[in-house]
Amino acid sequence: QSVLTQPPSVSAAPGQKVIISCSGSRSTIGHNYVSWYQQFPGTAPKLLIYDNDKRPSGIPDRFSGSKSGTSATLGITGLQTGDEADYYCVTWESSLSIFGGGTKLTVL
Amino acid sequence: QVTLRESGPALLRPTQTLTLTCSFSGFSLSSSGMCVSWIRQSPGKAPEWLAVIDWDDEKYYRTSLMTRLTISKDTSKNQVVLTMTSMDPVDTATYYCVRTIYSQSRYSYFDTWGQGALVTVSS
Q: What is the mean pLDDT of residues B56-66?
């Protein structure tokens, strides 16, 4: 299965904005929806963004998603210390799902 | 309210077969667009998708593990079962049962996760 590439880590100060990238290919991100998940230690991942840019009910509008070509991004504005977590992008290729390697967000 | 719960053995010996059951509520796996996936996560690693079964009984498996995996459903019991043969210590992980949404003619996203079941493979 193909690979989705994320930066291993990003950091920013409280109140600032951070962008997490997810790079794929034409057959993965290029032809499929991207979703994003947030995971705190010891807990299951939680859906943040689906269908590239949609937020489930209950997810603050500080979280946003976008997709362009073979890449996708997750944006988080107004960073809070409670946003410190691992973030994963996910897409599909020929009905097989692929996870990115994950990005650890540190709020300094 | 959608909930999923995994059940199965916490400890397996190498070469044994893992059987995990996902019991869910709040949706029907016979409804169009409803699917259930199994996803595992080894300590310190990214989650790894294993398999999906949908309302039409279509099944897909992770390519590298497809010879070892079988996913099935019992719609009347609201259960999905995953079996994985020839377990090895590298298969030690938390295994999640996850509701998966199929929309606009494609598998889309994982909207509800179970709490996960830690499976340790050790002699």
A: 96
